[in-house]
Amino acid sequence: MATYPSEVWPADTAIEALDGTTDAKTGLPFIAKGTGPTSTPTYEVQYNRRVDRANGILAGWRQGMVVDEGGLKIGVYPIEFTLGGQRRYFGGVSGVSVPDNSAKVIYLDGSAMLQVADDWPANVTSYLPLATASTVNGALSLADRRPRTAFHVPSVEASLVRERQILSVHRASVGQGLSDTEIFEFQAPWAMTLEEVQIYCSSVTATASVNVKEGGVSVLPASATPVAGAVVKPTVSDSAIAAGGVITVHVTTNVTGAVENLTVTLLVKAALTTA
């Protein structure tokens, strides 16, 4: 249960001293005492100026807000955001129904599509949380969940390191006579950078090699040879993985070749965009 502080108001004299001044932090003016319809500018003009400027300050935070439109329907304001290192845009929506007597989560997925679901996705880096909704006997209650990303400390702080992820494939045994056989496939949800490839096995017999490809084209200068009990880190010659690109891992063995406990690990991160 949340605890909210009991904030005190400034003294009356301190507030009165603000008459006719401008708040330096926001640029918002305090209307002077005695301002009225005959003042220049009039009270109406000064008041609306202040409201207009405050609205401009609030507009950014209004983006992506989920609101109650009545009748168990919600609307969502447009929003520009960054997900997976990519700039994305959601144009807003109106009239989305929420089932009665339910608890739902509301978010934008990796394709900037609105989702009203039972649970959040397991991968917290794959979506933008907006709100949770609870409906009971025709009444709708919304809780804003945008602060979960607005107040966010990245998991890795180093410069230009953007939410690294590890992709890994393991095969207990790789048999003989394989020719560039695919053992793993992954489709990149957005543009990525392949930072490193690591290959490990507990034993290798005769001739065996491992290759990593994007769209059928090797991203290594040549297939790498696994070494028993050691981590092999081949050079990555093409690190740019396109959005929607398919990354695959392939194994080749000769007629007597075999590999035990083969593990291929790919270290990736979202590609940097500057738009």
Primary descriptors:
275 residues; 4-stranded antiparallel sheet; 3 helices; mainly beta
In short:
With 275 residues, this protein is mainly β. It has 3 helices and 19 strands.
Tell me what the structure shows.
By secondary structure, this protein is mostly beta strands. 11% of the residues lie in helices and 40% in strands. It is built from 3 helices and 19 strands. The chain has helices spanning 12-16, 43-62, 147-150; strands spanning 66-68, 73-76, 79-83, 86-90, 93-97, 102-108, 114-117, 128-136, 139-144, 165-174, 181-187, 192-200, 203-205, 208-214, 217-218, 231-232, 240-241, 246-253, 258-270. The strands form 5 sheets. Strands 10, 12, 13, 16, 17 and 19 form a 6-stranded antiparallel β-sheet that branches. Strands 7-6-8-9 form a 4-stranded antiparallel β-sheet. Strand 6 and strand 7 form a beta hairpin. It is elongated. The chain starts with 11 loop residues before the first helix and ends in a 5-residue tail after the last strand. The mean pLDDT is 93.
